[in-house]
Each structure stands twice: as C-alpha cells, then as structure tokens.
Amino acid sequence: MKLDNNITIELDTQPVEANRQKIRDGLHAFNVEQIGLEKQLSLFAFDSYRELIGGVLFSIEKQSIFIDILWVAEKYRGKGIGGRLLARAEEVGRQHGIHYSTTDTFAFQAV
Fold first, then answer.
1. Which of 5, 6, 78, 93 has the most other CB atoms within 10 Å of its CB?
2. Mean pLDDT of 71-82
3. Is the dihedral of CA 13, 7, 35, 22 positive or negative?
C-alpha cells in the first residue's frame, strides 16, 4: 500500500525479529516519556532442582506496577504459583508506595 510522501505499508508474514523489537522499543520509550519508569523488575520461581518454573516481569511506574509477562510451566499450573508471583509483585509495588497494578491479558490466560 502506497501512502503520501513515499511511505509504504507492507504485510510481513515472517518478520525479522529486529524489526519487531524496534516497534516494542519505540512504544516502550514513548510510554516512559508519558508516565515515567522507575525500575524494571523480575521475580522467578524455581523448583527444588533450581530449574526455572515460572516468573513475572514487571515495571514500577509513577502510579502503578505494570505486569508485562506472567508465566508458569505447564507442569506447575493450578498450584497457586502464578498467584504467589503476582502477590509478591504487588507487595514490591507497595514497598515503593504504589497501590495500583495493571496488566493486559486474554480471557483464556486470566483463568
């Protein structure tokens, strides 16, 4: 699709990861300009063999923590690990004076 000023819009069914990352980085930079960002943090869950079985990636922003990714290995789902990771992330937020958390998810993931 050709637009004004020699700009084109192209569908890419096998995009280069660097292009996808540039889009993510651009949006992240814009969001930081708008709402600020104090810290990016991670919490990890390990089994007794120190194998990583889950985690949550989140950031502390001006007025909330933003839960970016929450994942638990299939074998460990339904055991409360995800809830404990979220509770700990919220606790970290409260330690920074934040009382709100936000995330974005699909309905089937939220179960």
1. 93
2. 96
3. positive
